[in-house]
Amino acid sequence: xxxxxQVETREAPSNxxxxxxxxxxxxxSTPLNSAMTILGIAFLFWVIPxxxxxxxxxxxxxxxxxxxxxxDGACWVFVRAKMDMFMYGFYPExxxxxxxxxxxxxxVVIATFRYLKQAMPKIIIATIYFIIAFVLIRGGFxxxxxxxxxxxxxxxxxxxxxxxxxxxxxxxxxxxxFGRASKLPxxxxxxxxxxxxxxxxxxxxxxxxxxxxxxxxxPEGVTFDKLLRALIGITLFQAAYIxxxxxGGLQSISSGQYEAADAVGLSYWQKxxxxxxxxxxxxxxxxxxGSFIALFQDTTLVLIIGLFDLLxxxxxxGSDSHWLGFETxxxxxxTLIFWVFCYSMSVYSKSxxxxxxxxxx
Amino acid sequence: MFAxxxxxxxxxxxxxLLTVIGLVAFLWYIGTNTVHNIEQRGIRTxxxxxxxxxxxxxxxxxxxxxxxYTYWRVFFVGLLNTIIISVIVIxxxxxxxxIVGVLRLSNNWLVAKLSSAYIDIFRNIPxxxxxxxxxxxxxxxxxxxRKSIEFFGSIFLNNRGIYVPKPDMNxxxxxxxxxxVFVFVFAFFLNKWANKKHEETGAEFPVLYTGLGLLVVVxxxxxxxxxxxxxxxxxxxxxxxxxxxxxxxxxFLALTFALTIYTATFIAEAVRSGIEAVNKGQKEAAxxxxxxxxxxxxxxxxxxxxxxxxxxxxxxxxxxxxxxxLATAIGYPELVTVFAxxxxxxxxxxIEIISMTMLVYLVISLAVxxxxxxxxxxxxxxxx
Lengths: 361, 384
Fold this sequence. Notes:
The structure holds two protein chains of two kinds.
Chain A: H1 18-26, H2 31-57, H3 76-81, H4 83-88, H5 97-115, H6 119-138, H7 154-181, H8 185-200, H9 203-213, H10 226-251, H11 255-263, H12 268-298, H13 310-318, H14 327-360
Chain B: H1 2-5, H2 8-41, H3 71-104, H4 109-122, H5 127-138, E1 149-151, E2 155-158, E3 161-164, E4 166-167, H6 171-201, H7 207-225, E5 232-233, E6 236-238, E7 241-243, E8 246-248, H8 250-277, H9 280-288, H10 293-323, H11 335-347, H12 350-379
Antiparallel strand pairs in B: 1-2, 2-3, 3-8, 4-5, 6-7
Helix pairs in contact in B: 3-4, 3-8, 3-10, 3-11, 4-8, 5-8, 6-7, 8-10, 9-10, 10-12, 11-12
């Protein structure tokens, strides 16, 4: 009887595995690829070492005055010395606990959201949070000193503008999206006109409008804070974009859902709020996050109408006569903050997209 | 009465009626307030100001302009600058975006990673920040005019801009320019003819190579026909600054670089998603019927990828036009800077000026969406 011995599997040839193989297939597969690889490496050598040298090796970190910056590199002492300005603007130092408390409460609110299943309590808690945040930051109640909005600035102002913009534009955007999807001709045309008008003009013209023309619309004596005018402009602007994103979600809902809701006798608002909107929002979430990233970037435009957001702080701190010539450090620092915020949001939106994609398959 | 309210149609009409009444009341309220406020503050109304003398200078104007011209002229200078910067940025960002989008899908690991790093870095930094960075950090740290960086003895780079030789507008220059336009028009019709021939007989005609060849040959012939007389005005240092030649100011350069780099990331993403969306089976089918790699790309993959990539790309073009308004932060004299900025400050007629400015952008937007709809209609998959 024949005996069959198992033969050990031979190792793969050395040119189809390991480091060399990887380099060959991924970097040097063709002459063109090799050339591009070498160009890429040259580019990295051209950019990265000088940047590391400037920002870390030759940089000054310790100290508190201009004299502490001796090297050729970056003067991070400047950023440290001006950190309060970048974070809080001209907000008085003794009152800053109010901002910290507002930030801390935000995380508390997010934590409670994890335990709440229904939408209504969430909305109520969020509303209460915004009232508390307003009272805390602006003051004027419960013996808290009033801090005028012209003292608000830096990252804190950027966050205020972005979050008010997001929160206030959301309901308005939903209503506009419903209006655009409505079968009533007048409602539809009003919504379409508004959305297309806003999307057709640059944000800066809307900010000019809200800061110059808006006061003319109201009786004498009614004055608007500069910040409030910017917030109104940003909210009106963002609402149109939110509406379009939600419309995309609404279009993905099959007509069977509408018919089923009608068949069980739900009213229009019940149908839209309980059946259609939750499904549409789920589809629209990745794009909504994208639209929030755009809004967060757009908040920088408020500096053009004279508010001191994070970006404006670079110019404010850079014009300090004790610290002339360190704008570059300021720009790099602010860039880093904006980038971290926007990039983490975009990573989050990509992960959501993936999650929803698998649900569909 | 109440039974009527339960009728969906009646309720719809009622609801719309209420909306109209609300809107009209709101408009009437702000209208009367505005009229009252304008009278109170003694603000002039109407568009009469447009014929007034502006009294301010604009350093970068494509048409003849000085401070004795009217506000109308200011409006047009701004509008032209908006169009110029938009067209240039659209052109540059399309090229950069296309290259990066294709490289992002390269099988070269390093190149693909570098491309996606570029996209991830620059699309997550606010565009205004990028504009200010280019203007206040990169371009401001260039040497002074006396220590300019020199290329070929005729191009100068310093903190006041780039100075390049400018061809005189003589018959040779115009003749060569006309011939280039002529080649493009000719190539367009050649392409049409070649497609028709291909449909009818299957024969291929090398349109691309013919076109490129003509693009080289025809202008050279035109050069000799129209007198062979290229005359350049060269920039040269006089006192503390350069005269002659063509100047690209730092405001223009900062805006061009920042907008191009920012928008190209979005176009690159559009290109990538367009190419990725083409089904793998399409490429395999193309290979199995014997098309070459280039033919498969040109006849099968690209037509489908373009259909997906074009709408988001055109939206980005629109964003370029709108984002060009951020020039007002660095003072490039486009529409918002000179009209909604300087003119508004001098005249004070906010309603008229901002409406006119918005109207310009609105018209451009509506025109572009009309074009987009037309393209979408043209490119719709024809089902037979």
